[in-house]
């Protein structure tokens, strides 16, 4: 269904942002109000030391539709300032779909005479007739954009052709666009000297990937010690991802300026849970920075139904910003992920642990954000004969519980959101409670860390080589972590450390 903006007639900036709701993440970004999905146009402005985040935004409703590019900025990716929508539809029949943004420092586009910090946004315009690729330029650092007079820049008369990600290729001195022929399950590469004129370079496909459509591809260059650099192609698939609904895969390989050649034919599933989709990767980072991404912490299976809509007037948060490396794990290139700067700009004092008959507990009832970072280390495991279980439970005084654990005997890590009662599999059969993955204890130790933030849990296992993002909806905020053990082998020790996190919102309504 298409919505008429004029008919809805709600002024975009009319509603005050309220970040105090008990389901509102305090460390992950969420929109001031309305419905949010993919991150868009992530770029870093080195001149002003500022990260920009745009996002798919319906400012009028709590479901997808009326897509605009919402906008926020941050100096540390945790403290955000909201701004008015950066790109809006020109008429009620078009939507501004996902895309990317770059700084055109050399004015290749000609939009920025005498300027070295012009910003070009590259995005899909969705209409009933076609999805076309379009550009808009900003002379004020990415706050306001002028649509190019000769849009679209690419039109192949397809209704399933979208999500351009543009990066500068220093080797070929060309811009590269990576985008999806969504229903064909094909990724296209185009090149351009000036962001206006584009030449098709090649196509890449993996028809055997699960899922009906390819969306939001990102080709990301990683520096690696041994081989100089490698490229990783991230492909989001929806619907029909292996855990249901939407999910993301990646393939590691080489890009020669026109063609992507993967090292292996087997793509890797990025996460072992349902709630991380359409990650985008920052452009214009300094050469020293490792790649940084932000993903959409939800799933198309239930994103438009979750209770934050009715209760608090917003739907969907982003993942924490993540730092990445590409590392060989058992001979295979693996993308690692950890929270950006180890959350240092929001991490406050350590929580005190107490011994309790159930195990070790850390209360965060006095942490006003109700967001914490935690690390759990299991050491002294008999690698030849690992035995025993470690369980961790986040609980609320109202009787909600979000649970997880490690089964050493079988090498299994699991998470279960069934005990958070505001929204469960009874509300949506797609809101499946369990996520799990295989882990290795062959080195005699296993460690993981995580961020829990009111309605989103993210965990990072085995030096960030595996991760999960799980949304959950308790009737009251979870405010206590208990770690218990049973049947551990002699000499196995479990350590817990946890820190309160400060809210990333300086005040409840930091909006322009
Ligand atoms: C992915 C997606 C994109 C599209 C956008 C529309 O979540 O479907 O393919 O550009 O969302 O909001």
UniProtKB/TrEMBL annotation:
Gene3D superfamilies: Exo-inulinase, domain 1 (2.60.120.560), Glycosyl hydrolase domain, family 43 (2.115.10.20). It comes from the Eukaryota. Pfam families: Glyco_hydro_32N. Coiled coil: none annotated. One of its GO terms (molecular function) is sucrose alpha-glucosidase activity. GO terms for biological process: sucrose catabolic process. The keyword Signal applies. GO terms for cellular component: fungal-type vacuole. Residues 1-16 form the signal peptide. Residues 29-328 form the Glycosyl hydrolase family 32 N-terminal domain. The keyword Hydrolase applies. Keywords: Glycosidase, Hydrolase, Signal. Belongs to the glycosyl hydrolase 32 family. This is Glycosyl hydrolase family 32 N-terminal domain-containing protein.
């Amino acid at each position: 269904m298409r919505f008429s903006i004029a008919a809805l007639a709600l002024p975009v900036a009319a509603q005050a942002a309220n970040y105090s709701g008990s389901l509102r993440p305090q460390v992950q970004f969420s929109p001031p109000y309305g419905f949010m999905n993919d991150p868009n146009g992530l770029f870093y402005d080195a001149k002003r030391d500022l990260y920009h985040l745009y996002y798919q935004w319906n400012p009028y409703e709590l479901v997808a539709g009326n897509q605009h590019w919402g906008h926020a900025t941050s100096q540390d990716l945790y403290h955000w300032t909201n701004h008015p929508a950066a790109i809006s539809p020109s008429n009620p029949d078009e939507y501004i779909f996902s895309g990317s943004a770059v700084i055109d420092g050399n004015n290749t586009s000609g939009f920025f005479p005498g300027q070295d910090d012009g910003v070009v946004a590259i995005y899909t315009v969705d209409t009933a007739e076609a999805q076309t690729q379009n550009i808009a330029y900003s002379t004020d650092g990415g706050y306001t954009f002028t649509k190019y007079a000769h849009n679209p820049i690419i039109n192949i008369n397809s209704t399933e052709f979208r999500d351009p990600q543009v990066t500068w290729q220093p080797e070929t001195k060309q811009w590269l666009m990576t985008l999806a022929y969504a229903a064909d399950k094909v990724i296209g590469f185009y090149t351009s000297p000036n962001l206006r004129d584009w030449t098709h370079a090649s196509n890449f496909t993996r028809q055997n990937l699960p899922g009906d459509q390819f969306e939001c591809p990102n080709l990301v260059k990683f520096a690696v010690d041994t081989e100089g650099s490698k490229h990783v192609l991230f492909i989001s698939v929806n619907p029909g991802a292996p855990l249901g609904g939407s999910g993301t895969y990646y393939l590691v390989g080489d890009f020669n300026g026109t063609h992507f050649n993967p090292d292996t034919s087997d793509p890797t599933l990025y996460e072992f849970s349902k709630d991380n989709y359409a990650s985008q990767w920052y452009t214009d980072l300094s050469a020293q920075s490792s790649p940084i991404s932000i993903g959409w912490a939800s799933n198309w299976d239930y994103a438009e139904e979750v209770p934050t809509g009715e209760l608090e007037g917003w739907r969907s948060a982003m993942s924490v910003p993540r730092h990445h490396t590409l590392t060989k794990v058992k001979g295979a290139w693996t993308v690692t992920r950890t929270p950006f700067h180890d959350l240092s700009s929001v991490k406050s004092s350590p929580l005190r642990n107490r011994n309790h008959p159930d195990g070790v507990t850390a209360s965060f009832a006095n942490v006003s954000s109700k967001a914490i970072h935690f690390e759990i280390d299991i050491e002294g495991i008999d690698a030849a004969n690992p035995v025993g279980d470690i369980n961790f439970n986040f609980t609320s005084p109202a009787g909600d519980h979000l649970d997880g654990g490690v089964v050493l005997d079988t090498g299994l890590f699991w998470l279960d959101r069934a005990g958070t009662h505001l929204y469960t599999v009874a509300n949506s059969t797609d809101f499946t409670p369990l996520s799990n993955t295989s882990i290795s204890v062959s080195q005699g130790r296993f460690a993981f860390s995580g961020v829990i933030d009111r309605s989103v849990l993210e965990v990072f296992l085995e030096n960030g080589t595996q991760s999960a993002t799980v949304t959950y909806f308790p009737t009251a905020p979870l405010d206590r972590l208990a770690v218990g053990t049973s049947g551990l082998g002699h000499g196995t020790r479990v350590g817990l450390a946890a820190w309160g996190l400060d809210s990333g919102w300086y005040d409840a309504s930091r909006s322009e």
